[in-house]
């Protein structure tokens, strides 16, 4: 049995007349008649009763029609569903990030406001080519020191989208808030609030302490940047604050003080993977994100 035989059967049942059904199918009437006879032979039952040049479904024919109609409708819809799936995949951006999560979240919200048909699937995993875009960070690399280049999957492109200073965030009532700049070597006795393990900003800031030869006194750590900010604002300790990627102003209860030693800066980098190049929406979002970083990043006025 072939799919075409079932289509011919359903058309014949719909018209109740082989000549009219054949005309609609654009085939010769004898070819339609032979197709139905062959189907009846293969099934081993008659499907039609014939009377006065018309055909009528018998009980077996009605049962076959009942079973075939939803099947054929599903098959007819399959092409549209497949194309819809292709469109949906091309309109979905798979985004993975380890850095600038508040800023990236706001960027996604703003982009979706302009492109509501674009979907995002967001995760926080190790760099993997299963995503379209991966965002991470590293301590800022000096121009004379290119640093260690990461191993990238074939076809992946990595670019810096943001270079930002990292300030020391202190409660406004702290004596440190009056300083024009600070030196980490002079802050050994302070209580620090920091991000938990797994955040790249945590490891970057730990390296700042190592450069200063300081073992900090940690009084609280959290995997939530918002909790870190709120605890500093509540006057419970001090911590590090990226100037741009945490988004928004620190609020009236927090002062941001430049760090003179060591140099505290980081780069935020974006890796675009090979398969993303087949999705124009990814390139459009990347351009939007770079512009968003440039426009929305606050510009703190500090003098070191």
Structure report:
The structure is a single chain. It is built from 8 helices and 13 strands. The protein is rod-shaped and about 105 Å long. Mean pLDDT is 84; it is low at 299-304. Helix 1 (3-15) crosses helix 2 (18-25), helix 1 packs across helix 4 (59-90) and helix 5 crosses helix 8 (280-296). Helix 6 links the parallel strand 8 and strand 9 (217-222). It has 2 domains: 3-81, Orthogonal Bundle (Arc Repressor Mutant, subunit A); 92-296, D-Maltodextrin-Binding Protein, domain 2 (3-Layer(aba) Sandwich), CATH 3.40.190. It is 40% helix and 24% strand. Strands 3, 4, 5, 6, 10, 11 and 13 form a 7-stranded mixed β-sheet that branches. A two-stranded antiparallel sheet has the order 1-2. The protein is α/β, with parallel strands linked by helices and 304 residues long. The relative contact order is 0.14.
Helix content: 25-40%
Query: Tally of extended strands?
Result: 13
Question: How are helices and strands ordered from N to C?
Answer: HHHEEHEHEEEEEHEHEEEEH
**CATH fold-level name of the largest domain:** D-Maltodextrin-Binding Protein, domain 2
How is the main sheet built? 7 strands, mixed
The structural domain count equals 2
Keywords:
D-Maltodextrin-Binding Protein, domain 2, alpha/beta, rod-shaped, 304 residues, single chain
């Amino acid at each position: 049995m072939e799919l075409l035989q079932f289509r011919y059967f359903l058309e014949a049942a719909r018209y109740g007349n082989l000549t009219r059904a054949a005309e609609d199918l654009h085939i010769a009437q004898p070819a339609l008649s032979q197709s139905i006879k062959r189907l009846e032979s293969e099934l081993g039952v008659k499907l039609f009763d014939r009377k006065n040049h018309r055909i009528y479904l018998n009980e077996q024919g009605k049962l076959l029609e009942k079973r075939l109609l939803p099947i054929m409708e599903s098959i007819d819809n399959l092409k549209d569903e497949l194309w819809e799936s292709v469109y949906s995949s091309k309109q979905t951006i798979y985004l993975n990030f380890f850095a600038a999560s508040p800023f990236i979240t706001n960027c996604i919200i703003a982009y979706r406001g302009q492109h509501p048909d674009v979907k995002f699937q967001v995760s926080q995993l190790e760099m993997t080519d299963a995503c379209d875009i991966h965002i991470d960070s590293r301590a800022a690399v000096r121009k004379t020191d290119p640093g260690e280049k990461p191993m990238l999957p074939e076809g992946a492109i990595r670019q810096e989208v943001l270079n930002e200073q990292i300030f020391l965030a202190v409660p406004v009532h702290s004596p440190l808030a009056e300083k024009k700049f600070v030196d980490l070597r002079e802050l050994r006795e302070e209580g620090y609030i920091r991000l938990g393990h797994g955040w790249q900003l945590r490891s970057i800031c730990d390296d700042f302490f190592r450069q200063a030869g300081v073992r900090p006194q940690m009084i609280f750590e959290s995997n939530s940047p918002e909790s870190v900010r709120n605890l500093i604002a509540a006057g419970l300790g001090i911590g590090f604050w990226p100037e741009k990627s945490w988004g928004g102003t620190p609020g009236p209860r927090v002062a941001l003080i430049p760090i003179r030693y060591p140099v505290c800066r980081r780069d935020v980098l974006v890796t675009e993977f090979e398969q993303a190049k087949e999705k124009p929406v990814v390139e459009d979002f990347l351009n939007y994100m770079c512009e968003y970083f440039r426009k929305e990043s606050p510009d703190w006025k500090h003098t070191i």
